Amino acid sequence: MKKINIFYWVFTGLLAFLMLGSSIPDIISHPLAVKGMHEELGYPVYIIPFIGVAKFLGVVAILTPGFHRLKEFAYAGFYFDLIGATYSIAMIGKPDWMFNVLPIALLTASYVFYQKRKKLLATKAENQSSVAFKGAIA
Asked: What pTM did the predictor assign?
């Protein structure tokens, strides 16, 4: 359990750092974010802060304890964002799409360890409740 917790928090912390770092320029419509998303990729300017806020809320969701369904939506949203960004960058012919392999790998590792951790916590809670039930019967 301890190793799974450590791996989960390392991968999730790195993912959160990366996604938060990419959300802030989008939220404030920094000229570099506008240049990359509007001028190079052709996205409308009004979508840039929306994507930034969505990333920020996703980071909050994956770092907040509990709320398992919300976390699932946040992980899915991050996958859509990262795969969409990778595809968009590849379609304009830039080799920069390869740099998105790292965030996608971090996202995958965080999600895998989230699922393992959730399963272990559920098993632990189930064992504790069965012990408490047996103690109540005796």
From this structure: 0.86
